[in-house]
Amino acid sequence: MIVILMGPPGSGKGTQAVKLADKLELPHIAVGDMLRDAIAAQSELGRKAEQYMNQGKLVPDQLTIDLVKERLSNVDCENGFILDGFPRSKAQAEALDEVLEDMEYSVVYFDIPLDEVVRRNSKRFSCRACRTVYSRPGTCDKCGGELYQREDDKEDVIRSRYEVYVENTKPLVDFYKDREKLIEVNGVGEIEDIFGRLLETLKV
Ligand code: AMP
């Protein structure tokens, strides 16, 4: 099964992606995490991506397209995958179309309003080690890592990430509607309730 999760920053798509990947025993491909790993490793990709990410801008298409194409060619993606944070632009959606060819897939769109985006993201703390997301500082329950606030979760950057989303990513809702691939899920509410809605709409 191939599921692509879309939605504004802070719509909960990352949290839901982890739960879905766990349930379906499929790899969770989170492009933001892959880019943060590249920054931590101080690779060439990381050096190129960092300035864009810290400002809440999209990393140039060709970098993310190459990254995702390579990841999807991995043997663990043979039975499907959960794609989180890609595509975020028309060029990325077209590149993904080429990779998927005539494979079956679903695109889930979590919609939440801007005030909820700001409220959630400004309270978001991530584990430096395993990337698990919390709504408090401290240490990670899973691995004991330090919980920190991402540079791009500061309020002014959140607002510009939302603008970037509206301009570049939201148009993909129509792109996938036209292909009859889009499933809308209400992203407001408790994590477990949203997950229930997600499973119901995906019929899994
Ligand atoms: P995320 O962890 O999904 O919130 O992504 C964090 C940041 O990584 C975004 O604000 C972008 O700067 C960058 N990023 C993640 N995915 C993409 C993508 N598909 N295209 C371009 N930039 C991306």
CATH fold description? Rossmann fold
CATH top-level class: Alpha Beta
Query: Fraction of residues in helices?
Result: 40-55%
What's the CATH H-level homologous superfamily? P-loop containing nucleotide triphosphate hydrolases
> N-to-C SSE series?
EHEHHHEHEHEEEEHHEH
Quote the distance from N terminus to C terminus: 10 Å
What molecules are bound to this protein?
Answer: adenosine monophosphate
Tally of alpha and pi helices? 9
In terms of structural class, how would the helical and strand content be classed? Answer: alpha/beta
Uncertain segments: none
* CATH architecture descriptor text: 3-Layer(aba) Sandwich
Query: What would you call the shape?
Result: globular
Strand order of the largest sheet: 2-3-1-4-9
Q: How would a textbook summarize the main sheet? A: 5 strands, parallel
Tell me the number of strands. Answer: 9
What integer is the average pLDDT?
95
- Tell me the β content: 15-25%
Topology, element by element:
Elements: E1 2-6, H1 13-24, E2 28-30, H2 31-40, H3 44-54, H4 61-72, E3 81-84, H5 90-100, E4 106-111, H6 114-122, E5 125-127, E6 133-134, E7 138-139, E8 146-148, H7 155-169, H8 172-178, E9 182-186, H9 191-202
Parallel strand pairs: 1-3, 1-4, 2-3, 4-9
Antiparallel strand pairs: 5-6, 5-8, 7-8
Bound molecules: adenosine monophosphate.
Protein name: Adenylate kinase
Domain Adenylate kinase active site lid: 124-152
EC number: 2.7.4.3
